[in-house]
Amino acid sequence: MGLRLLTRVKGRLLRGRRARRPPELIFTLPIVKTRLRFSFWFFAAAALLLLLDRHALLWYFVMPVAIHETGHLLAILICSVRVREIFFTPVSIRMETRHTGNLSYRREITVAFGGAALNLLAALAIYLFAFASMRNMLLMASNLAVAMISLLPIGSLDGGQILRAICARRAGPDFARKVSLAVSFIALVPLSAAAGFFVLRGATNFTPLILCVYLIVTVIVSD
Fold this sequence. Notes:
Blueprint: E1 7-9, E2 26-31, E3 34-39, H1 40-52, H2 59-78, E4 83-88, E5 92-97, H3 105-129, H4 134-150, H5 158-171, H6 173-200, H7 207-222
Parallel strand pairs: 1-5, 3-4
Antiparallel strand pairs: 2-3, 4-5
Helix pairs in contact: 2-3, 2-4, 3-4, 3-5, 5-6, 6-7
């Protein structure tokens, strides 16, 4: 929301390959056999968001995203894949594994769905066990929103990764790439049109339109 702030390296990218990174100031925190690495710009972006968060709403965005990423990590561990490194940047959380070779399509689907699954479980737990309040309802809604957005069958979102894995399993990677590209644009065109329409009608929240533009760019670049 994976939102895939939400672009993360999962699916076919979770293969023990080291991502190319531009030179930058990086802080490293070793935990057991896993390294947590934080870009300087990750902290800069976090500080900026805190300064702009006058209504204390940032928590309702950060918490569901943290739950989502924890779900992916748990799915990776369930699939018996060891994580070598987790790298935090302002727009992504990338995972590097110790796994050599390609993950099976079943494992790819499990890892991709893990984030949304934990968001849905968190929303259900809040609904069943937390007392009724505006804050809890907002936290439940934000978990549902992160899950729903991440499962859209678009590009590098979890739903797009799941779609690719299913199609590749049945008809091969080339067919999966073509289907993913077609479905991504079929989904993004009406979503972008709707977001642009609301902006033209005077909506002050540009987040949906910015998200759509971002997803279009990622689809074009990745394919």
